[in-house]
Write a structure and sequence with these properties.
α3 runs antiparallel to α5. This protein is 38% helix and 17% strand. The relative contact order is 0.13. The chain is of the alpha+beta class and 236 residues long. The strands form two sheets. Strands 1, 2, 3, 4, 5 and 6 form a six-stranded mixed beta sheet that branches. The radius of gyration is 26 Å and the shape is globular. The protein has two domains: 167 residues, Cathepsin B, Chain A (Alpha-Beta Complex), CATH 3.90.70; 36 residues.
Length: 236
């Protein structure tokens, strides 16, 4: 009498998560860790093309001082082959072009991308956010490597595939057999176009920073440069 009986209940075993819940959790984690293609913004300093190309071909290494070296490289290549790089191709004499491209205020474009594609032996894809089109320089050269830039009408940025919020280095060099990255680049361009993140080169307003003359569009800027020799323009 007076004894107390203590009964201990067996703890109920933990119920395994349902397969559907586990699958959703794994899918969510995989999405968070999946690498995405993104723009890596570089300064708008008249040398964005050279900075962007350097960044992607060097595997995601940013070198803000690379532009003079790349300009000099292009000038040397052009000067060494005056037959291929003649006035009809360059829009100016070979010698004039070589002097012009070395100037820090000179913008790079399709000619320079083509030269750099050959030098680095890789396909350089330029994704245009206004037209949602990809121009593939070196496409028929049989290169195995591909790098990507995004272009809004006046400014170039490099594209990289990276895991968000991760210390894992980004990927900037892709196989030319990787068509998925091209589709992802077009999605980025289309998103930028819908947000109107582009510059209409036929309508945007410029000012000549030498004589302060106002100009409209790329064609007027080119004509002004041809007439005056002024090549330093700023967007208004």
């Amino acid at each position: 009498a007076g004894d107390t009986l203590i009964v201990e209940e067996e703890p109920s075993p933990a119920q395994p998560a349902s397969p559907a819940l586990a699958k959703r959790a794994m899918s969510s984690a995989a999405r968070e860790a999946a690498p995405v293609l993104a723009r890596r913004v570089v300064p708008a300093d008249n040398s964005c093309l050279f900075t962007s190309v350097s960044y992607v071909v060097e595997g995601g290494v940013y070198d803000p001082a690379c532009a003079p070296e790349m300009r000099s490289l292009i000038a040397q290549i052009v000067a060494s082959d005056p037959e291929s790089y003649c006035e009809a191709v360059l829009g100016k004499t070979n010698r004039e072009y070589c002097e012009w491209i070395r100037k820090e205020e000179t913008w790079g474009g399709a000619i320079e991308v083509s030269i750099l594609s050959k030098f680095y032996q890789c396909e350089i894809c330029v994704v245009d956010t206004q037209t949602v089109r990809i121009d593939r320089f070196g496409e028929d050269a049989g290169y195995t490597k591909r790098v990507l830039l995004i272009y809004d009408g006046i400014h170039y940025d490099p594209l990289e595939r990276k895991i968000p919020d991760s210390d894992v280095p980004p990927q900037t060099i892709f196989s030319t057999a990787d068509d998925i990255v091209l589709a992802q680049a077009l999605e980025l361009a289309d998103d930028a176009r819908r947000k109107r993140q582009f510059t209409d080169v036929n309508r945007f307003t410029l000012r000549c920073m030498v004589c302060q003359k106002g100009l409209t569009g790329q064609a007027e800027a080119r004509e002004h440069a041809k007439e005056t020799g002024h090549t330093n323009f700023g967007e208004v």
